[in-house]
Design a protein that fits this description.
There is one protein chain. α8 packs parallel to α11 and α13 packs across α15. β4 and β5 form a beta hairpin. It contains 19 helices and 10 strands. The chain has a 6-stranded mixed sheet, sandwiched between helices. Strands 7-8-9-10 form a 4-stranded antiparallel sheet, with no helix packed on it. It has 3 domains: about 160 residues, no CATH class; about 160 residues, no CATH class; about 160 residues, no CATH class. InterPro entries: DUF7834, GmrSD_N. This is DUF262 domain-containing protein. It comes from Pseudomonas triticicola.
């Protein structure tokens, strides 16, 4: 079935059809191709094997006369090159080609797809994974259907693409996570009335979380900021392993790898198991009370309605349903406490001063490091010795600023990956703030030469503006003239000693 119609733009023809996969490839003398701007093939073996499992389940149905729908594909017909370039859908087309190869021993005709070396490695890994599974029969592959939108104009093709992907149609990973965990509440064993009430309560909590003021990134929805920049990294950046927190890994971490209710005998629809941490010595699980309070079972203590006080840890197992929403709520509240609480305690107020006067004059990727580590630290030690932590960490990040005129995105990952120990691991595994502060002080000594030998002109360029901010900060704090960053380490120690003597920020 197909339709053809002209757009308002002269000579711009749009063809819409529903085609079997093989027919898509053979529907024209012009083969399918990839343009140079396209990202590579990024599907991992897990996604390919999941597709095979889904198709195998379809094959086991008693009636397979209905086709198996694989979504839409957007193509641009280029008359100059006599090719149909894939604008949207190349991941699925490549994946289906690999399934076809596994089923028939050959690649489907009608394509001129070429890939980078990185894509070729992903394809080889995918083929190896498919060899471990039973092949999908050619009869099932013949039942695969795609909606194909084909246009002649490049501008029109990208108008379609932008509309589909950038104007609210595509869901964020966090939107999918919300839906999954609300369904998990509905599927759990329990009274219908209780499940409905919990779903409403968790949906309201999530919507409140989404409206939180931004931290680092501006935006109307705080949830993607929270999960992409903070929770994913805090959980997955370990040792030298710092993977990218893209759409699929986020879903894997916070959906597929969360624990179902049957995984722990303490888990119920309204109760979440707790684990022994610095903030939890007694309770075995936590129940969400009808009035919004949290009741710690085993100790029968109420901890009020402030999610920042929940006895959870960043790297603990996450339990689906209520557990997921409480986990997200806690760390959203901790970030807000650090950056946006209208009535901060003295320690947090000092932390904000350090951030505003020193970090705001630094590059955003360095601010990401600072806030990620600070969240991890406050989760572990609350605000104990927070001023010392913030200043010692800032000392390390400032050295990076002085060494690099341009700070790239991978700098954040390299900060953890290339050090002798990953600071996030050090924080998570420490029992006392002194262990973290000693580690930072040791690293200070290793980067002190960056300050001793700097020749940056004060106020000129990004490095000069950072230098001026440091000089003004310490001059204001120490009430003495500060001229050269070579003395920054000494200023830092003098300031912290004065804080300790005055019990200021401690």
């Amino acid at each position: 079935m197909s339709w053809e119609f002209l757009t308002a733009k002269p000579n711009s023809l749009v063809r819409v059809s529903t085609l079997p996969f093989a027919e898509l490839l053979n529907a024209s003398d012009w083969p399918l191709a990839l343009d140079s701007y396209q990202r590579g093939f990024v599907w991992g073996p897990d996604k390919l094997t999941q597709l095979v499992s889904d198709l195998a389940a379809y094959a086991e149905q008693s009636d397979t006369s209905l086709p198996y729908y694989m979504g839409g594909v957007l193509l641009h017909r280029d008359a100059n090159q006599s090719k149909r370039f894939i604008i949207d859908g190349q991941q699925r087309i490549t994946a289906l080609s690999l399934l076809y190869h596994r089923s028939t021993g050959k690649l489907p005709v009608g394509q001129a797809l070429s890939y980078s070396g990185q894509s070729a490695r992903h394809i080889a890994e995918g083929l190896q994974a498919l060899k471990q599974m039973e092949a999908i029969t050619p009869q099932i592959i013949e039942r695969l259907r795609l909606t194909v939108i084909e246009v002649d104009s490049t501008d029109l093709a990208f108008t379609f693409f932008d509309t589909q992907n950038n104007r609210g149609v595509r869901l964020e990973a966090t939107d999918l996570l919300k839906a999954y965990h609300l369904r998990a509440i509905d599927y759990a064993q329990g009274k219908t009335e209780l499940k409905a009430a919990l779903q409403r309560h968790c949906a309201e909590r999530w919507e409140c979380l989404q409206r939180h003021p931004a931290v680092l990134s501006p935006g109307q929805d705080f949830a993607p900021n929270l999960f992409n920049r903070f929770l994913w990294r805090a959980r997955r950046w370990r040792g030298s392993h710092t993977p990218a927190g893209r759409h699929e890994p986020l879903l894997a971490e916070f959906q597929r790898d969360t624990w179902p209710h049957v995984a722990d005998s303490r888990s119920r629809i309204d109760s979440v198991p707790l684990y022994a941490t610095r903030h939890n010595r007694l309770a075995s699980c936590m129940t969400l009370a009808g009035d919004g309070d949290y009741v710690l079972q085993g100790s029968q203590l109420r901890v009020g309605q402030n999610p920042a006080s929940l006895p959870m840890a960043l790297r603990q197992p996450i339990h689906e349903g209520v557990g997921f929403f409480l986990y997200a709520d806690k760390y959203a509240a901790l970030l807000q406490r650090l950056m946006n609480d209208p009535a901060p305690c003295l320690q947090v107020s000092t932390f904000r001063t350090i951030y505003k006067q020193l970090l705001r004059n630094n590059q955003e990727y360095l601010r990401e490091i600072f806030m990620l580590c600070s969240l991890m630290y406050v989760d572990q030690f609350e605000v104990e010795q927070l001023t010392a932590f913030a200043l010692r960490l800032e000392f390390l990040l400032g050295a990076i600023r002085l060494e690099k005129k341009q700070v790239k995105q991978e700098t954040a990952a390299n900060f953890f990956r290339l050090a002798e120990l990953n600071l996030l691991d050090v924080i998570a595994q420490s029992y006392h703030p002194k262990q973290v502060l000693d580690f930072l002080q040791h690293r200070q000594q290793a980067v002190a030469s960056s300050y001793a030998h700097e020749t940056v002109a004060t106020g000129q360029g990004v490095q000069g503006r950072y230098k001026r901010a440091v000089l003004e900060f310490y001059q204001g704090q120490l009430d003495s003239e500060c001229l050269s960053l070579a003395s920054k380490s000494q200023w830092l120690e003098t300031y912290l000693k004065a804080c300790q003597e005055d019990r200021h920020a401690y």
